[in-house]
Amino acid sequence: MRNGGFTLIEILISLAIMGLILSLGLLVNTNSLVNTFFQSEKTVILSSLQKARNRSMTNYHETAHGLCFDNADPGKPKYVLFQAPYSPNKKTNEYLEANKAVRISSVPDQFLCMDGGIIFSQLSGRSSAVTIDISEDQKKTEISINQSGRINW
Predict the structure, then answer these.
(1) Is the preceding peptide bond at 85 cis, omega within 30 degrees of 0?
(2) What is the pTM of this model?
(3) Cβ(79)–Cβ(96) under 8 Å?
């Protein structure tokens, strides 16, 4: 005679199915979080490059502007938006924190702060040709700047 309840086996099977569904959902959610970090870092670099180029082309403060990557302190990598020429102690420098989880796998010398950074010429926006490779786990992308200052991604 049955009183309308669930048996122990039915409850265990239900819990196992729910656990399987939740673990698959967690896996998908983790991948989307990693993808968000990656896209966010790419957007920070792109918008900073565009901001430096726009400031140079509009002759903001009557000087050229640039962007560089400062990894002198590996625990706190950052991007620096600056008025040319680059100097680490300028009050006009704008600092943007870089995501430590995202690697700039190929850092060209021109992008490093210690080498002067990427500088866009006043009024024309011209720059030296540079390619920046960004990677995180198996995701990779490339941002390139040609000599006319065009930013491609």
Answers:
(1) yes
(2) 0.78
(3) yes
Q: What is the dihedral of CA 113, 118, 119, 125, to 10 degrees?
A: -160
Tens-digit pLDDT string for the chain (153 aa): 567 788 899 999 999 999 998 887 776 666 777 788 888 989 999 999 999 999 999 999 999 999 999 988 888 999 999 999 999 999 999 999 998 878 886 677 788 888 899 999 999 999 999 999 988 877 888 999 999 999 998
Could you tell me which residues come within 8 angstroms of residue 121 by beta carbon, excluding any fewer than 6 positions away?
56, 64, 127, 149
Say if CB 67 and CB 80 are below 8 A apart. Answer: yes
| 120 within 8 A of 57, measured Cβ to Cβ | yes
Rounded to the nearest 5°, which phi and psi values hold at 112? -75, 140
Q: Could you give the C-alpha distances from 25 to 22, 29, 103, 110, in angstroms and in order?
A: 5, 6, 27, 42
Residues 6 or more apart whose CB falls under 8 angstroms from that of 52 comprise: 65, 66, 67, 81, 118, 120
Q: Which helix (H) or strand (E) holds 24?
A: helix 8-57
Q: Which residues lie closer than 8 Å to 101 by C-beta, 6 or more apart?
A: 34, 37, 136
